[in-house]
Structures are given as structure tokens and as C-alpha cells.
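To close the chapter, one final illustration. This time we ask the reader to focus less on the individual chains and more on the assembly as a whole: which components sit near each other, and how the overall shape emerges from the parts.
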Amino acid sequence: MHTGELLGSGRTADVFAIDDRWVLRQYRDGGDAAPEAAVMSYLADHGYPVPRLRRPTAHGDTAVARTRLEMQRLTGPSMVTALEQGAITPEAAGAMLADLLRRLHAIPARLSADPADRLLHLDLHPENVMLMPDGPVVIDWSTADEGRPGLDWAMSALILAEVAVAPVAVAEGARIGLTSLLRHADPGVRLGDAGSGHLARARTRRAADPHLTESEVRLLGDAVALVHEVEASIRR
Ligand SMILES: Nc1ncnc2c1ncn2[C@@H]1O[C@H](COP(=O)(O)OP(=O)(O)O)[C@@H](O)[C@H]1O
Ligand SMILES: [Mg+2]
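The assembled structure is written out below.
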């Protein structure tokens, strides 16, 4: 039931147009979309900008139906496209990611009883933010989990750093975005601090990500070093 045009394809899912208002997101690997639907409904109830779900839960009882979510069609552009087109600066993008993380972590955790835990996105980077006229909307909640906010900051920082150390044209922009992200982080957020261990945990998670290419994994050490360096330069 691929109802329409393929709008986007990330590393885990394909997104098809249903009509002008709705899209169908479908996991390619047969993953269960129900936990993601629960997270998105909870966040929408707390006023966080996520695509509206057409139905509150993943529906249908077949294995294929469970891999699907129907949600609001976001016309975008994505933050990546806006950066490529020069519609926003890397500095503004980093500040916007920081604001989205801060707002997410202001919401109480949905499941955890530990008062220090929050809902974490764990893959909040420019491909997963759609810029709408009334503000950014965060997509792709497949990696969401609960835990300490520092891990979410570390994941976003590391993903930007991976681009910044890669031999790509947008490396310099990614470095500026990373610097802006960390400059706009709460003063209590410490990623490279040996005590917090957030950056080390983020590295472990990225290294275990089956969607990372070999060359991306090889650059992880350089990316971690860059996050340390940028964080130290800001806190100096
Ligand atoms: N609600 C939506 N409206 C329009 N396009 C979307 C929507 N959700 C996702 N997309 C597009 O599909 C792509 C893949 O979706 P995403 O949820 O990020 O899956 P993945 O886990 O594969 O990255 C996105 O980068 C975006 O271009
Ligand atoms: Mg994505």
C-alpha cells in the first residue's frame, strides 16, 4: 500500500505522500512503530513540536501494519536543505538545535521514575528537523529513549562533529554549528567531562549503529576529540 510519491528516505524508514495533509512512514527493517507513536503523542500533549499523528497509535494487526505510522505532512524545508540553500546560517541552526533540546528536556519523562531522567531524541540533527512557517518541527523519533539529558546533547554534538571532521564541503559549516550548539547549551551540560561520561557513551552508541559506514566509524575518534576541543574553548 504505497499510496504515493516517495518524499524522503532516511537510514531506517521510507516516507510516502498519502495526500496534501498526510504521509505514511514505514520502517524498511520491519521495526515496530508503536513505541514511536506513544512518544509522539506524549510530546504533542506537552506542546512539543512533532508531526501530528493521524491516529493516536500504530494501527492494524498485521506485521506490516505495525511498521507504519501516518502523520502530518510537513512541507519543510528540512534544516539541511535550508542550510544548503543559505536560508539559515550554521550559527542559527546550532542555536535552534540547542533550543529544541532544551525544550525537550524541560518535559517530565514519560516512563522513568528517576526525577533526573528525561525523554531523549538521541538523533537530533539537521536532517531530522523540518522548518515550518510557525517554527521547527522534530521528526524521526525511532531512537527516542529516556535518560540523562547530557547524552542527548552529546549525541547531537558528536553527529555534527562527525560531519566537521569528514572530507566534505559542509565540514566548516558543521563545525560552526557544533560551536553554536555547545555555546547555547545550559551551563550545567558537560559532555567531555570524565565524570559525566556522556560523550563516551555517545561514541559507543554511534560505533554500534549499523547504519554508519566504515569510514564514518573510523572518523569517530577525531569527532570525539573535536567535541572536547570545542567544549574546552567555550568553557575557557
Ligand atoms: N512528516 C513528514 N512530512 C514530510 N516529510 C517527512 C516527514 N517525516 C519524514 N519525512 C522525510 O522523510 C525522511 C526520512 O524520515 P525519518 O523519519 O527521518 O526516517 P529515518 O529514520 O529513515 O531517517 C526525512 O528526512 C524527511 O525528508
Ligand atoms: Mg531521519
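The longest strand covers residues 22-27. The domain at 6-72 is CATH 3.30.200.20 (Phosphorylase Kinase; domain 1). With these observations in hand, you are ready for the problems at the end of the chapter.
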